[in-house]
Write a structure and sequence with these properties.
Layout: E1 23-25, E2 39-41, E3 49-55, E4 58-64, E5 72-74, E6 94-96, E7 101-103, E8 108-110, E9 122-124, E10 135-137, E11 141-143, E12 152-154, E13 159-160, E14 169-170, E15 175-176, E16 186-187
Parallel strand pairs: 1-2
Antiparallel strand pairs: 3-4, 5-6, 7-8, 9-10, 11-12, 13-14, 15-16
Amino acid sequence: MHLPATFTLIALTLSTAGATNPYYFSTPGLTINSDSCSASYCKACSPGFYNLNCAGISNGTCTACPPTPANSAYAAWGASPDGILTAAPTLCPFDCVSNAYIKNASACTAGLCPVSLTVANTQYIASVTYPSCTTECKPGYYGSSATSPTSCTACSPGSWSARGATSCTPCALGYYQDAPAATVCKPCDMAVGYAANTGQTLCTPCANCTTGYYKSGCGGQNAGTCPQCSVLNAIV
């Protein structure tokens, strides 16, 4: 019996006169008829199983695969549903459980977002994983959008922002900020003055009281007052 060189027999089997014995092949989709012997295919195995000993007149046995690597699961056999045709497979086909992992020959490793960001003053959103790698503006900046901004601009003095902001927030009454790109505003107190308006870049100084009067209640958003000092009785 002669077969074309492009076809590979797993094993030969005996053909007796008047009897037809199948040959089993690893290549799917082929039909070979020679010397009254029919061509058949190895048993198709499900994901997680491989075909063992498909040869001669045996279409093989579906045998459990070795465990898959971490963060992976068994994959379908695809174009060769008869599976692996070796007695000791080291690894059956597998896919990573999500695209947060990168597949290589024998493992699924966690993907890492790029260290360098293309837009200045951006950072990755908290708990973001590969491959989304979604960015936002850093605190103290505001962006063209809350996620994946194309630019991030520093907040002006008198305002602040949290991470991912699309606008800056003016400092509240009683607070000020004299620096750009702020993440918080500073409180006004009697030592530095008061802030009766929002968005102040400096505290308004408390009034200087004249002789016989003292400062009272200046700080926060209050200008305070100058009450008169008490008159002390002379000690005789």
